[in-house]
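W.,

You were right to be curious about this one. When I first looked at the sequence I had no strong expectations either way, so I just let the prediction run and decided to look at it fresh. Below is the sequence, 224 residues in total, followed by the output.
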Amino acid sequence: MSVGNSLGEAIAIGVAEEHVFGICLVNDWSARDMQAWEYQPLGPFLAKSFATTLSPWVVTLEAMAPFRTRAFARAEGDPAPLPYLLDPSDQEYGGLDLRLEVFLSSARMREAGVAPACLSQSNFRDLYWTMAQMLTHHASNGCSLRPGDLLASGTVSGPAKDARGCLLELTSRGKDPLSLPTGEQRRFLEDGDEVALRGFCERDGFRRIGLGDCGGVVVPAKRD
């Protein structure tokens, strides 16, 4: 956050991006097995509270200006955003042509010198809601935001199967496992797996801008 709002004060959609300094990559390391157990009736508590990884730097929105695009085109029949989430400028330029990739490397792959497998290739422009819409809605009940606050968009997935942004979607909730170059299969992450998220913007006539690797290795749980 580059500008804050007072407690009880909403943020209008037309000025929402004035409150956004820049973007980075976030992996909240969701434990889907635990999430399936606890989300009814509690919701995802422990499944998302144990770790978060960020990419090494934040890229400003000014640097991303050449890669802005229209907001996601909703399917015919989808409800239109409520008035407080609808702004002509945001609809015209609220999207971002940011390519996203997810790589996985098992312990066996690393021992054998096998390159990480690219599991997913999606794009931030496929988000149903824009950055401004998410921020405006977040503050619509008077929630105060402060410089340094981090807002994560959630999983970014596209229409194609290889554009699904997490293993839960890629494997159809574990029913359709993925095969790795070593012959191993994955329904969900296992101990020793290394995950890396990468994002970059690219367009003719402009310098490519990357967000750096957002990665980490799954280690076994501590035992008493």
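Here's what jumped out at me. The longest strand covers residues 194-201. And, maybe more interesting for your project: Residues 13-74+85-217 form a domain with the Fumarylacetoacetate hydrolase; domain 2 fold (CATH 3.90.850.10).

Coffee later to discuss?

I.
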